Fluoride-specific ion channel FluC (Tetragenococcus solitarius), 122 residues
Amino acid sequence: MFVNCLTVSAGAAFGVLARVLSTNWIKSQWTYTFPFATFAINILGSLLLGLLTGLSVGPVFSLLAGTGFMGSFTTFSTFNVENVELLREKRYKYFFSYVGVSYILGILAAFLGIVLGNLLKH
């Protein structure tokens, strides 16, 4: 149990670092109202977690990369706060676009990752 916690923690440390660096870089490139940084990170995370799932990586790597890294790289809480802010600012077009496109592309990215992972392991 303790080793599993350390494994997840190690992955999470790298995941949050990757998220901060990615967010800062994306925000320096994208200055529009749409919260593109969180959107891009969550879609990429969905693809990568799907890939790990499709590859059927072992339990230790799954804890490290899946639970730890991807769990701290992607961010459901920021996604929700950004949506509340869009609603409070009455930016309904952005709100509905963000929610709809995030879920649709997130599911498609996860599916694509699983398919690619299955293809790569054979």
